[in-house]
Structure formats: C-alpha cells, structure tokens
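Aim 2 progress update. The chain analyzed this quarter is reproduced below.
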Amino acid sequence: MIGVCRLEIYIAESTSLKDKRRIVKSLLQRVRQRFNATVNEIGSHDLWQISEIEVATSATDRAGAEKVLQEIIKFAEADGRVEIINYGSCYY
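Predicted structure tokens:
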C-alpha cells in the first residue's frame, strides 16, 4: 500500500525566497532521514511564505501507511518554523 499526503505549509519567519528554501529544504531532509519517505516541494515555488509539499510512503496495509503519514504530519507540526494550513491524504 502506498500512502500519499499533500501538505500546504505557512512559513511565518520567511522574509524572502532564500529564507523559504532554507527552511523547506531542512524540513524535507529531516523527514527523509527520519521516516525514509519520499518528499518534495510541489507547488507555490514563487511565494515566500507558502509551500506545497507531497510525501509518499509505503507499508503493508492502509493502516500502516496512514500511521506513518500521521507521524510525519505531527513531526512537521512540531517544527516551530512552519504551520500546516491544509493537508489531504490518499492511498493506492
């Protein structure tokens, strides 16, 4: 089972695209390392306080994929530099 989650995040402390890219790159790298998930910035590239991120993970069943995605969401929420303003999940 593959689980995919799209996150829209708000980066309050970002004052430029350079700030945004530094924060987003750090978050993506930490998610990859901690959860062994595929994660990429997929939208809002030209906005300096908003980013759209997509995360994909695999598991033996839907519950396992959902659990990992929920852990990733909690991990991102715990990062004081970003605020999740919207997210959605789907499973294949």
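The mean pLDDT is 92. Residues 4 and 56 are 4 Å apart (CA to CA). These observations will guide the mutagenesis experiments scheduled for the next reporting period.
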